[in-house]
Amino acid sequence: MSETPKVWTAALLVIGDEILSGRTQDKNVAQVATWLNVQGIRLAEVRVVGDEEAAIVEAVNALRARNDYLFTTGGIGPTHDDITVDAVAAALGVGVVIHPEARAILERYYATRGGLNEGRLRMARVPHGADLIPNRMSGAPGIRVDNVFLMAGVPSITAGMLDALTGTLEGGLPVLSETIGCWVPESEIADLLRQTEKAHEGSAIGSYPFFREGRTGANFVIRATDPAVLAECAEALLTGLRATGREAFPGGI
Amino acid sequence: MSETPKVWTAALLVIGDEILSGRTQDKNVAQVATWLNVQGIRLAEVRVVGDEEAAIVEAVNALRARNDYLFTTGGIGPTHDDITVDAVAAALGVGVVIHPEARAILERYYATRGGLNEGRLRMARVPHGADLIPNRMSGAPGIRVDNVFLMAGVPSITAGMLDALTGTLEGGLPVLSETIGCWVPESEIADLLRQTEKAHEGSAIGSYPFFREGRTGANFVIRATDPAVLAECAEALLTGLRATGREAFPGGI
């Protein structure tokens, strides 16, 4: 008997009043999700909390316990509302220390930018036992402690930190996907979708309707880790859609 | 002694594999947050889960218990991956029934669109005891049951449902905000921010740095429910920033 391969999962905790107030449109969920998939890790859940220690601590402990990895974005800057490091340390039951390498990085970075002050030195603080995640965009590094990865909130800086982590985390098989588009109301072919998914074990079909140019259509996304299952399921769906007398478009509309 | 006014809170549960896979960029968090604020309700937390009943049930019960309102987006369509109604009913411990008015709405809507079939009739299913939320964009209505509001995943449809709910929910004072922009690295004026916030009880200052045109700047968002507190805190911050010899811009950069 073959063993089912382990599914590696991660959670993402987005930290910041600016997301909950609606002021800032989050862009980190999609970029972290996409990056994780390439690492063979499935994003299993996301939470967004404000800049409140109790809320962060609760979420960190719930999410890190039941996932292989926990990523956080936001709250690692120099100002009073940046409390992620303290909250994660509290969640892990460890103290906060100045990381000597982080301090050295900040001293170099700010040498030509007015020098290290008290606010900037805050960005060298890490939970005890932490390692650094390189930041190629600006001075302050990200932080890894246990299975928790603290990253910046600004999406371009987050992207650089993810890039630095690429290939360093253990994962499983990446999820592959194919998209088929069709000018059909999804409600007309709901049976076909359900039956096609059921007939191909290891596949999942998502249905994403849209209204465009005054017409109703949908893209159907087939996902599987096994390329053969993916190809067979996609072919079956394409054939099924065309059997209804409609055009269907591999790659989506 | 004056009583502290009650703060009304809501949570948002975003349901859908397409968000967790990174395929779709969520747009509902920002629009629900903005809308809630106008109703005098604070968005306290957000979770994103996939199309899995156990995950939805757990999140629904955690979030509805500790907030005045819970909103969900996604998973109320006609296909096999639309399981929000069943999961919310399971969370509430009630059965699922066909809502006669929802059925009548769908019959009218699909009369000229090929008629009501099994998949489309799924969209008339509601947790027992539910009311409908009007859908001005397409056929299937949203659903209200207890303090839980089930809305569509497609942002334009969600917007119409929010519009239909405007003014119908009890809330408190809306949070007011003012923004001040300054070409300054936030790390240089972290002390000023902290002290200004501390000196104005009932205010909160968020700091949102950016890099633009090769320069470092930040927008500072002051929030308060009391317009006098907001005005005084904003004036103090403006004065403080200008005292450092920099230009500061009411309204933000």
From TrEMBL, chains A, B:
InterPro entries: CinA (IPR050101), FLAD1_M (IPR056596), MoaB/Mog-like_dom_sf (IPR036425), MoaB/Mog_dom (IPR001453)
Ranges for domain MoaB/Mog: 11-173
Pfam families: FLAD1_M, MoCF_biosynth
Protein name, entry field: Molybdenum cofactor synthesis domain-containing protein
Organism: Novosphingobium kunmingense
